[in-house]
Design a protein that fits this description.
single chain; 130 residues; mainly beta; four-stranded antiparallel β-sheet; 8 strands; DUF1830; DUF1830 domain-containing protein
Length: 130
Amino acid sequence: MAQILDPIPADAKGQILCCYVNATSKIQIARVSNVPKWYFERVVFPGQRLVFEAFPEALLEIHTGMMASAILSDKIPCGRLRVMDESDPTQSAPGPEQEEMPKRPHRNPTIDNKGIVLSDPFLMTALTSV
């Protein structure tokens, strides 16, 4: 997959296909921070999927947008974001340095046009008495 505006350096080998999903209700900025001679930064809207090429050792920084700033909220090794092609027998299973993420139930929150979460299937209100 070619990235038209900012391709990976031509002399580099070993790039992988990665996927990141913004599962929040806020706008995020995704930035690869530690690849020399390469600048990659994208805005990722709530619910949007970002597919890109990087190196397994690259770090994807996630900056969450606030009113007038952005806060670094996560650093994810790109090896953990790798998209596996099940039809390609040459790809191996993740090794100990690249553990699989535990499966979590799918969440479908209802979000209004201002980005406010109206309902979340795993968010429950409980009444207690003292």
